[in-house]
Amino acid sequence: MTDQGRQPIIVGVDGSDLSVAALRHARVFADALDSPVEAIAAWNYQAAPGTFTPVLWNPAEEAEKVLRDALGRAFGDRPPAQIVSHAVHGHPAQVLIDAGRGARMLVLGSRGRGGFAGRLLGSVSTACAAHAPCPVLIVRADPGMEAGERTMDSSTHR
C-alpha cells in the first residue's frame, strides 16, 4: 500500500485509449475518496523456441515507456501528485489481481491491446472482474463522454 497506509486505487495500463480513460476515471475516484493511485503496466515476455529477440529490446523499459506515454495522454505534462506508476513482470491479469489485495478499487479499460487471441481466451478485464479481491470498475469511455462518442459500442460487447 502507498501513501501512509491509505488504500490505493489500482489502474491497469497497457497504452490503449481505454486504459488512458481508466487513468482519468481513477483520478476522479481518487479525488473523491482521498486515495492514492497506482498505475501498473504488466509485461510478460516468453521467448518461443526458434524465435529471434532483438538484443537491445528491453520489455521492462518498454512497459515504463507505455506508462509515461499513457500518463502524458491522460494528464498532460503534470500528472497529479497522488499517482505513482510501476512496471511489473508477470501475466497482466495475475499482476492486477495480486495488486488488488488491499486496494480500494481496481480500474481497467474494457478492452486493451489483446487482439483476436484475447477475445478467444478471455480478456484481462474479464479475469480481474471475476477474481480480484476488491471492487473492479470496467471503463468503456472517458469521463464525461456522450454515449455516441464512446471508444467502443457497448451493445456489441457484453
Q: What does the model show?
A:
The protein is an alpha/beta fold. The chain has a single domain, classed as HUPs (Rossmann fold, 3-Layer(aba) Sandwich), CATH 3.40.50. Helices cover 36% and strands 17% of the residues. The protein contains 5 helices and 5 strands; from the N terminus they run βαβαβαβααβ. It has helices at 17-33, 59-75, 92-99, 115-121, 124-131, and strands spanning 9-12, 37-43, 83-89, 105-109, 136-139. The protein has a 5-stranded parallel sheet with strand order 3-2-1-4-5, with helices on both faces. Helix 1 (17-33) packs across helix 2 (59-75) and helix 3 runs parallel beside helix 5 (124-131). It starts with 8 loop residues before the first strand and ends in a 19-residue tail after the last strand. Belongs to the universal stress protein A family. It holds the Pfam family Usp. Residues 7-140 form the UspA domain.
Key structural traits:
158 residues, Rossmann fold, 5-stranded parallel beta sheet, globular, Universal stress protein, UspA, Universal_stress_UspA, Rossmann-like_a/b/a_fold
